[in-house]
Amino acid sequence: MSVEKHASSFDEKAPSVDRDVVVQAEAVSPSIEERRLVRKLDLRIMPIACIMYLFAYLDRSNLGNARLQGLPQDTLHGDPTGVLFDWVNSVFFFSYIICQVPATILSKLCPPRIWLGCATVGWGLCSVLMATAFNFPGLLVARIGLGVFEACFGPGIPLYMSFFYTREEMGMRMAYWFGFAAVAGAFGGLIAFGIQHVHAAVADWKLLFIVEGIPTVLVGLLSMLILPNRPEETSIFNEKEREIALERMNRGIKADVGRTVTKSHIVAAFKDWRIYAAGVLYFGANCALASISAFLPTIITTFGYTNALAQLLTVPPYAVAAVYLCLNSYTSDRLQSRGIFIAAASALAGIGYILLLTVPSNNHVRYFATFCITSGTYTTIGVIIAWFAHNLGSETKKATGIPMYMAIGQCGSVLGSHLYPKTDGPRYIRGFAVTCALQFVAAIAALVLTISYRIDNKRRDRKYGKPVPDAPVDTSELADQAPMFRYTP
After folding, report:
1. pLDDT value at position 294?
2. CA separation (Å) from 367 to 61, 317, 428, 434, 439?
3. Which end of the chain, N or C, is surrounded by fewer C-beta atoms within 10 Å?
4. Is residue 9 scored above 80 in pLDDT?
5. How many helices and strands, by DSSP H and E, does the chain display?
6. How far is the first Cα of the chain from the last one, in angstroms, to the nearest whole number?
7. Cα(79)–Cα(93) distance, rounded to whole angstroms?
8. Is pLDDT above 60 for 218?
9. Residue 377 has what pLDDT?
10. Is the peptide bond before 426 cis (omega within 30 degrees of 0)?
11. How many CA atoms lie within 13 A of 215 on its CB side?
């Protein structure tokens, strides 16, 4: 059906929309029942989802800490060039990239709590198995498995949360969730610091994988009991709560009913240039994120500190990044504007890399630069996840588009994990310069996207009129191209 036919159908229904204006206006202001439902969802979903991501990120990024605890010497024959370690780090992203789109589309056909719980158990087992590796191929196999199972989780969570949270609420929830990646960075440094002083019979790096892997399996099993299924399926709601949840699910779009996939929306996602622009943005941010998570302890040792102290000094940059991410997400939720905040955060990360490149001798300035990089990078990724969770129009297009831009972005993670070989130390000029340039490219991509969304919204306002706030919009055929659908710029 064409856009013009949809527009005429809206015109024909205009009188009924007018009669509903009062009802819809009331829906804008959350009722007491709705606020109570949101609190219930927050208590039920957010703690376990955040803990799952904490362990996902710990299990993904603990390789940087293990490097300082003797992993290359025990399994990679010392790895004097650092190339083998780079491949162990980056091979995770190959399976993670390849599996994201099919895994997220397939997740639409499964009960969410079972899907997410099994994925968590899977990568937890892979993390534990890394402790049993005794050579390069063994580490590679475990990291590939880790990537497969995390691909079932990472893009699935924004899709899952969009079933329960509105676009005005999504930014902060994604900040809390993704902020646990920053918490994991800080927490991982503390765990590594503690393990380094245990002096156990097992090698420190092996103990690190075991300590961070076994709790992940337990969290996965627990999530199968705690997380709710889709609003129309879950048993945790009474009838009034289910009615409110379904109304919230249909604000500004038309949600799917049951486990369905719309093939035309999969094709539409692959044809949408904005998803590729988001991929470029995500590419730059992930290049910085992957290199920082794997190499921040090593970079801090170039300031002249011991390995143990370097582990400890990784904590404050991550802690500040979590706070900065939450502040930006809260403000972007209130203003319903994402692109400007992403552009500013990417530019902040770029400035951090400029400081590392231009100030080789002042360790205080260089340490401050790591705060800029972590704060800018984590904020960019946290806000873009919230941005596209409600900007693609339909569940199927979200299930395709979200892992698409994430998969493109994770290619940046592969690049980032190869930019800091030992032979480039202690200055790492090539790595810092490439990542710096990518941060400013990401800032430009964010500005292009936000301007594009604003122009499109104004064009639709002129052509079809302004929609009633939070009124349901039939996106079942045209997804985000429906005449009354509006983007968050």
Report:
1. 64
2. 20, 9, 15, 19, 19
3. N
4. no
5. 21, 0
6. 26
7. 21
8. yes
9. 95
10. yes
11. 14
Closest CA to 317 of 434, 188, 414, 437: 188
Short-list 373, 380, 325, CA closest to 353: 373
DSSP string, 398-410: HHHHHHHHHHHHH
CB 391 within 8 A of CB 342: no
Q: Which residue has the tokens 């709710």?
A: 228
Dist CA 333 CA 383 (whole Å): 10
For the chain, how are helix, strand and coil distributed in percent, rounded to 5?
A: 75, 0, 25
Q: If you write DSSP's letter for every residue of 76-107 in order, what string do you get?
A: STT-TTSHHHHHHHHHHHHHHHHHHHHHHHHH
According to DSSP, residue 13 is labeled T
DSSP 239-251: HHHHHHHHHHHTS
Average pLDDT over the chain, rounded to an integer:
88
- Express each pLDDT in 121-169 by its tens digit: 999 999 999 999 889 999 999 999 999 999 999 999 999 999 999 999 9
pLDDT at 434: 95
Q: Is 244 in contact with 41 (CB distance < 8 Å)?
A: no
Task: Quickly count: other Cβ atoms within 10 Å of residue 78's Cβ.
Answer: 10
Q: Biggest alpha carbon distance in the chain?
A: 77
Torsion of CA 298, 193, 376, 290, to 10 degrees: 50
d(CA 10, CA 18): 12
In this structure, is the dihedral angle defined by the CA atoms of residues 232, 237, 242 and 244, taken in order, positive or negative?
A: negative
